[in-house]
Amino acid sequence: MLLIAGGSGLTPCYQVVQAATLAKDSLKLTLIYSNKTEDDILAKKQLEEFANSNPNLKIVHTLTRVPEGSSWDGKKGRISAALCKEVMDTFDKNTLVGFCGPSGLNKCVEEMCVELGIAKENMFRF
């Protein structure tokens, strides 16, 4: 399962991540979380704790505005099909994709899923 969140759109994705982690679920789960700056990342510490305690969870942060000289060593730029393919262990038309964020991000993710061949019934917006 792939979760994609932008800004405060993290809220429903966070709940899925938390539930899967607390249930010790075997679901392979990747969260790609986009923010403008590192300071904008919500619940960063809690997400890191979930990732450290759940071997089936991968958290990927990407920033759209990284100041020159920043120590940020994570992903940079907007969420894209290439980024999804890069960070997912396996990815195919049956991958479940849940997403939540600003309308521009939601539209982009819907288009990206079509481009990647994700079945419409496997895409859901929170």
How would you describe the overall organization of this protein?
This protein is of the alpha/beta class. Helix content is 35%, strand content 22%. The chain has helices spanning 10-22, 44-53, 81-87, 103-116, and strands at 2-6, 29-35, 57-63, 75-76, 97-100, 123-125. A six-stranded parallel sheet has the order 4-3-2-1-5-6, with helices on both faces. Helix 1 (10-22) packs parallel to helix 2. The chain is globular.
What descriptive keywords fit this protein?
Rossmann fold, 126 residues, 6-stranded parallel β-sheet, alpha/beta, single chain
Report the radius of gyration as a whole number of Å. 14 Å
Termini separation comes to 14 Å
Number of beta-strand segments: 6
Helical residue percent?
25-40%
In which order are the strands of the major sheet placed? 4-3-2-1-5-6
Number of helices: 4
Which structural class best describes the helix and strand composition? alpha/beta
Shape: globular
Question: What's the short story on this structure?
Answer:
With 126 residues, this protein is α/β, with parallel strands linked by helices.
